[in-house]
């Protein structure tokens, strides 16, 4: 069934995190979130979320660049155009507009929900998802010392999380991971995520990465720069621990390059980072053929983008726990109902029994949190 978008409403909300989240390149304590409301020509409506942050410290995009890109270039290419379906949106945006993948994804992913609603099926089913439940891992920000980190990791285990991911940076790495491994025992899946903080030119940093090999980590995520597949390949040859790429994988082609060059053995798929579900599914399918495990990453999303991640993670190739924590991990109160919850076995239920997103947006609350709003229609 075709897709024809009639209007896109942009809004910025501000949602305070329960506690600050620190990665190697910066700290967030209040999430500025760009929400979209999409309406098609028949009045079917849904919400989507742009996962860009306020600062360009994970990717070059921010919520402000995304707002500009959607208003100036993305919406004008999509509004009031008859497209064959959500599959046609990514190709429509890919070549004429360079970059701005998170901005594109916010629109593209919304069209998958509209298509699901028109078919009367869940987003998960529309994407080809098969799982009833998805497994959850926690991502723990950089802590002041190993003892605090161990407390956090123990608490995560007690809550049922099936994997612990620890943010690292030079100087907060080997001692922190050693403490976590000793506390959790030899078997539990532990991951280190560097967010591009390391360089092969620094012998102390290289030695620290090599030392992590002793802790039997499930993987080390994105140690080097986003655009550096060649040095990741050199590093992977020196490490027993599998490298998982996050920031580096922005398209199917980069996933192919990872395999060709040997830059890593696992991929963290974030649909926002790759421009939406079209690319995310293509990477998933490619990795399934290549026996590359994938898992769904997170970007401190509200319950809206979480619905998209849960649906994606229900695809059969997502064999590792994703960064899909329940609402209460981040927010005093989420903006969706019901809130996302996790059971004692660290699993989140996929709402396959409800058409579209599977959660309702609490519009009154979103109104209260809204800092600015703009409605985009085709100018005639
Ligand atoms: O690298 O996976 C990352 C959060 C913000 C930016 C980048 C990353 C992260 C996380 C948090 O690890 C994952 C989550 O949303 O729980
Ligand atoms: Mg990461």
Any key phrases for this structure?
380 residues, alpha/beta, seven-stranded parallel β-sheet, 36% helix, globular, binds 2-succinylbenzoate, binds magnesium ion
Description of the structure:
The protein is an alpha/beta fold and 380 residues long. 36% of the residues lie in helices and 22% in strands. The chain has 13 helices and 15 strands. It has helices spanning 63-78, 89-94, 101-119, 123-127, 146-159, 174-184, 203-211, 229-238, 252-261, 277-290, 303-313, 327-330, 363-369, and strands at residues 5-23, 26-40, 45-50, 133-135, 138-140, 164-167, 190-193, 219-221, 243-245, 266-269, 294-296, 336-337, 347-349, 360-361, 370-377. The strands form four sheets. Strands 5-6-7-8-9-10-11 form a seven-stranded parallel β-sheet. A four-stranded antiparallel β-sheet has the order 3-2-1-15. A two-stranded antiparallel sheet has the order 4-13. Strand 7 (190-193), helix 7 and strand 8 form a beta-alpha-beta unit. The radius of gyration is 20 Å and the shape is globular. The model has no long low-confidence stretch (mean pLDDT 97). The structure holds 2-succinylbenzoate and magnesium ion. 2-succinylbenzoate is lined by residues 23, 58, 139, 193, 195, 246, 297-300, 323, 325.
Order of helices and strands: EEEHHHHEEHEHEHEHEHEHEHHEEEHE
Distance between the termini: 26 Å
Task: Work out the strand percent.
Answer: 15-25%
| Overall mean confidence score, pLDDT | 97
Helix content: 25-40%
How many distinct beta strands?
15
Biggest sheet layout: 7 strands, parallel
């Amino acid at each position: 069934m075709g897709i024809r978008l009639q209007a896109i409403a942009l809004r910025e909300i501000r949602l305070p995190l329960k506690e600050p989240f620190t990665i190697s390149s910066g700290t967030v304590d209040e999430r500025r979130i760009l929400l979209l409301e999409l309406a098609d020509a028949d009045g079917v409506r849904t919400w989507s979320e742009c996962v860009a942050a306020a600062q360009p410290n994970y990717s070059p995009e921010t919520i402000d660049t995304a707002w500009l890109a959607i208003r100036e270039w993305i919406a004008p290419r999509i509004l009031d155009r008859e497209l064959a379906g959500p599959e046609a949106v990514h190709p429509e945006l890919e070549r004429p507009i360079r970059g701005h993948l998170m901005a594109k994804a916010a629109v593209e992913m919304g069209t998958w929900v509209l298509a699901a609603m028109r078919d009367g099926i869940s987003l998960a089913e529309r994407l080809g998802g098969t799982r009833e439940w998805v497994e959850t891992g926690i991502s723990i920000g950089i802590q002041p010392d190993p003892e605090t980190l161990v407390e956090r990791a123990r608490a995560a285990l007690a809550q049922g999380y099936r994997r612990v991911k620890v943010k690292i940076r030079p100087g907060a790495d080997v001692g922190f991971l050693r403490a976590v491994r000793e506390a959790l025992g030899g078997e539990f899946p532990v991951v280190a995520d560097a967010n591009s903080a390391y360089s092969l030119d620094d012998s102390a940093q290289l030695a620290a990465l090599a030392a992590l090999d002793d802790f039997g980590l499930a993987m080390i995520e994105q140690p080097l720069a986003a655009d550096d597949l060649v040095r990741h390949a050199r590093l992977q040859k020196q490490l027993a621990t599998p490298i998982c790429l996050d920031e580096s994988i922005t398209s199917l082609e980069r996933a192919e390059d990872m395999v060709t060059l040997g830059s890593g053995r696992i991929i963290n798929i974030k649909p926002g980072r790759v421009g939406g579900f079209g690319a995310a599914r293509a990477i998933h399918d490619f990795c399934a053929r290549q026996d590359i495990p994938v898992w769904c990453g997170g970007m401190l999303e509200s319950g809206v983008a979480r619905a998209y991640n849960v649906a994606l993670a229900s695809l059969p190739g997502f064999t590792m726990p994703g960064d899909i924590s329940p609402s209460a991990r981040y927010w005093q109160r989420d903006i969706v109902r019901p809130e996302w919850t996790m059971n004692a076995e660290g699993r989140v239920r996929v709402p396959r029994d409800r058409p579209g997103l599977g959660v309702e947006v609490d519009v009154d609350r979103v109104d209260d949190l809204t800092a600015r709003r703009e409605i985009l229609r085709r100018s005639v």
